[in-house]
Amino acid sequence: MSDQKRLFLVDAYALIFRGYYAFIKNPRINSKGIDTSAIMGFMNSLLDVIKRERPDHLAVCFDKGGSTDRVEMFEAYKANRDETPEAIKVAVPYIQEILKAMHIPIMVKEGYEADDVIGTLSKQAEKQGYQTFMVTPDKDFAQLVSENIFMYRPKSFGGGYETWGIAEVQKKFEVEDPLQVIDFLGMMGDASDNIPGLPGVGEKTAKKFLKAYGSMEGLFENIHELKGKMKEKVEANQELGLLSKKLATIMLDVPVKFDEKDFEMCDPDIEAVKTIFQDLEFRRLTENFLKTFAAEDTQATAETTSKTEEKAKPKTTSTAGAGQFSLFGGDVNEADTETSSASH
């Protein structure tokens, strides 16, 4: 295994929603009447990543207030989304408190989506010699994949993870370069984000166009080769196509900074985490948490090489727990507790 430093960036809302819907048929409601499904699902996923990978650097990225730039470009961007479920609104402050007690940095920037925060940090970390793993099931992140940036995608619950590098993205989207995923998403649109795309163009046609013309712009330069209704539709909707491509592009210039010291994994405040878990009545999760960090403390990861074990050893610095919560807009308690439908 390479001794290249590794950064894991977690797409918070993607895993929170995933956790919530995993329990939708049998919600986890405690004796106080709190629906803890989203908290439990998210924490199980996070602990799973820590146990499997023993990352040396880790952060959890949240949206705050939606994407100002995209809404300015296209007022209907994400306007089709349902109101955020109440259980998720309740869950977010708890999750942030747990992360704070675990000394895991929370990255959030008003007016930007987590995608853009993750994209910006991934590219900054790459320049500093890191491998970055973006923990998310969201296919949009495939556009960011490079030699040192990977998607770390949760499969079905209990099914582990799959890593998407360049080869996996090429195969999945039938492209030569992961950047063409932007053209793919722009052509076919994205119903979940309300990105319109080109009328009449679905997944198969988008892949065909990319194979033939390479990009959205390449398609428009060769409209004369198209026939019938498709030619008419593409010709009439060039502006919409270019707008859709812009909306699908993850921003890489969010005003956040990757300072490796602030992202170092270090020892959690075990008592503080236990107190929150007890309040939420998480017995099994408490056991899982204690096992995860007991194993880390004793270096009980026999399957890794001794070099990797040394690299993954938790750092007992106070930096990660002390400074990063206020790096991007105040204390974590103020940072991102709004979960309006616009923010996800």
TrEMBL record:
It comes from the Bacteria. Coiled coil: none annotated. InterPro entries: 5-3_exonucl_a-hlix_arch_N (IPR020046), 5-3_exonuclease (IPR002421), 5-3_exonuclease_C_sf (IPR036279), DNA_polI_H3TH (IPR020045), FEN (IPR038969), HhH2 (IPR008918), PIN-like_dom_sf (IPR029060). Pfam families: 5_3_exonuc, 5_3_exonuc_N. Residues 5-266 form the 5'-3' exonuclease domain. Residues 299-344 are annotated as: Disordered. The keyword Hydrolase applies. The keyword Nuclease applies. GO terms for molecular function: 5'-3' exonuclease activity; 5'-flap endonuclease activity; DNA binding. SMART domains: 53EXOc, HhH2. CDD domains: H3TH_53EXO, PIN_53EXO. Keywords: DNA-binding, Hydrolase, Nuclease. GO terms for biological process: DNA replication, Okazaki fragment processing. PANTHER family: 5'-3' EXONUCLEASE FAMILY PROTEIN, FLAP ENDONUCLEASE XNI. This is DNA polymerase I. It comes from Seonamhaeicola algicola. The lineage of its organism: Bacteria, Pseudomonadati, Bacteroidota, Flavobacteriia, Flavobacteriales.
